[in-house]
Amino acid sequence: MISSDPVADYTPTSERHMPVYETGTDTSLANVDHMIRYAYVAPFVVGKRVLDISCGTGYGTQFIAQQGALEVVGVDVDQSAVNFASKFHAHPNATFIQSDAHYVRQLEDASFDVIVSFETIEHLPNPRKFVVELRRLLKPDGQLFLSCPNDYRVAPWISEFHLHKFRFPEFRELVLSTFGEAVFLGQHYSVSSHIVKPISPALKGVRFESYQNPLPKDFFEREYLENLSAIENADGYLAIVNVDESQLQNQTSISQSAFQFLMRLLTETLPQSDQVNQLNQELQQTRLELDRVNQLAAAAQTRIQAMESSKFWKLRATWFQLKRKLGLPTQE
Q1: Which of 47, 88, 121, 216 is most exposed by smallest CB count within 10 Å?
Q2: Residues 192-227 pLDDT 10s
Q3: Name one GO molecular function term (predicted).
């Protein structure tokens, strides 16, 4: 049963991606990360029965349905997320159900042509049991698209919600030990610059249109690649089962808004960074001055000790004692 107010009942976390038109905040950076994976599977879902397991708020499930899937089932453990998805990402070919991803009792064996599960496995208590469940639900000749972040990379957004971290060899072994064969791709975040022809006003963008209406073939005729790491150091991994490697292409996700978002962050952060640097310099100077004062104090103490132990100082002390005994005035 769908809640009468899914928005009021649903409290998103940083792990639940929600597009900007629902949150009112800039999610362009996350869109670049999340939507490229759904865009990648678009050619493989046409006319197919598809499972989107750990679908979150359902934006990806809806997107798959929009690409021509015969049926899409979105599964998530959070009932409030399922309610939200059912209201805001509804589609005639999409349904949403609540279930633990380790075992979806509502679904029959070998019942899906395509299964997608993006950035799920790292959240689960038992990743191997989850992968075995995917094998149960997938048809013998079905296709699986399974992604996982590389939490060993240097990044500010390593999630507190991740229960497991996978290096590429560990992720690869987990998939191959269950499915036998797979093709592995790396997802890399990068900074890019594009020179493009103006787009006709008739093609002006709507929500996710760049994925619903792919760029023309050879849209980028020439590319310049400065550097791209090996898959072991990618920002994420994508395992693909039962798809011939010849069918797989490199793909990019483009967002000028995401770049502008990063520039705004830098613009706001750099002045603060300058202030912190100035304070650190002042602190370092204060420490140097304190060290100099301590050195002077130590030197003075050493001189006093040397004077007190000298013959003159001892004779002086004896002289003053004698004057006191004789009742003579003393000025020490």
Answers
A1: 216
A2: 766 665 555 454 443 444 444 556 667 666 676 777
A3: S-adenosylmethionine-dependent methyltransferase activity
Do 275 and 214 lie in one domain? The reply is: no
As given in the structure block, the two tokens for residue 293 are 């004062």
Q: How far apart are CA 43 and CA 69, in angstroms?
A: 10
pTM of the model: 0.70
Cα separation, 289 vs 49, whole angstroms = 73
Q: Give 167's contacts (C-beta < 8 A, 6+ positions apart).
A: 150, 152, 232
Place of tokens 């950035």: 119
Same domain? 299 vs 178: no
Residues paired with residue 72 on neighbouring β-strands, in sequence order: 50, 94
Q: How many whole angstroms separate alpha carbon 332 and alpha carbon 329? A: 10
Q: Classify the C-alpha dihedral 282-284-287-291 as positive or negative.
A: negative
Domain that holds residue 319: 270-326
CA dihedral sign of residues 34, 37, 40, 46: negative
**230 and 313 part of one domain:** no
